[in-house]
Amino acid sequence: MKTKKKFKWLKIIRNIILFVAAVLLIVMSGNGIMTMYEHKQYPAWGQYVEVKGKKMHVYTKGTKGRTIVMLPGLGTAAPVLDYEPLLNELAQQNKVVVVEPFGYGWSDQTNAKRTVDNIVGELRSALQQAGIPGPYTLLSHSASGIYSVYYANKYPDEIEAIAGIDITLPQAVEYFKESVPEIPAYMSLIAPSGIARLATYINPSDFLPKADEGTYSDENIKLTKMITAWNAYNKDVVNEAKEMEHNINATKEMTFSPNLPVIIFTPKIDKVTEDGKSNITFYEEQLKNVRTHQLIVLKGHHYLHWTHYKKIADDVNAFLSATPARPF
């Protein structure tokens, strides 16, 4: 009797496993078919350029003024869509470019390591292939601050200014005595498994900009959900997070050049360490030797451009207008 009961339970467990596997296979297959359909139905807004044998998406708006290159924060699934309100404001007086890195937006994924040298090299190649000459103002959000610092130090003649939105700088880890956060490797299964697609329908607020109604159009929101289903925590994003400690170590001796104009926007955060350190004191420390700089504190969250896109655009335009353009 005990043997029969044992086999009965084993059969039930086996059937449950087979059922779950079948459901996952159906969801994954459906997600794959949907993704292929969406890529055809909703083509990229900009142009594709070839970088290291892969397609990289470059979107450009505006024809006059400075050339502003916008770089996304780690894991921002659809950079062009995320930046759209700020991009539209800046494009009224500037030529604005969003280069979507591999694993982001409409760009391909890659097997190349997500080192700072590779990421910046790919960015430069994309700009060159797209026929967009410098000098550039790099407008970075979050982790892309590290890439901006590296770019400006390695190719100083190509960069005429840096604008940062709550940017990560390599000295922050030592300044705050913090460890470098990581994304678990299993997270790279979220998009191909179809879980990301389901999550965007079940709880879309977790994946959409937290902005005033009307800031982002219905079309933008629809596309953001769609591209999140393609890209959420994909292998490139996970590998980029994995390389973050290496990238910080590779740039920790790099600082802003005294001659490089820098403007930084940071949220007002009441959190202060026991020794009086905050995001504001940190940025002040990094900017103290920069001759032309500005630190602007705004009420809001990490993605300040969701709610303050007009002010950020006005302040960036005013800052650039006050600094002489660099010939290239």
TrEMBL record:
Gene3D superfamilies: alpha/beta hydrolase
Record carries keyword Transmembrane helix: yes
Residues covered by the AB hydrolase-1 domain: 67-181
Pfam families registered for this protein in UniProt: Abhydrolase_1
GO molecular function: hydrolase activity
Origin superkingdom: Bacteria
InterPro entries in the cross-refs: AB_hydrolase_1, AB_hydrolase_fold, AB_hydrolase_sf
Residues spanning the membrane: 12-34
GO cellular component, one term: membrane
Keywords: Hydrolase, Membrane, Transmembrane, Transmembrane helix
Name this protein carries in UniProt: Alpha/beta hydrolase
Record organism: Paenibacillus riograndensis
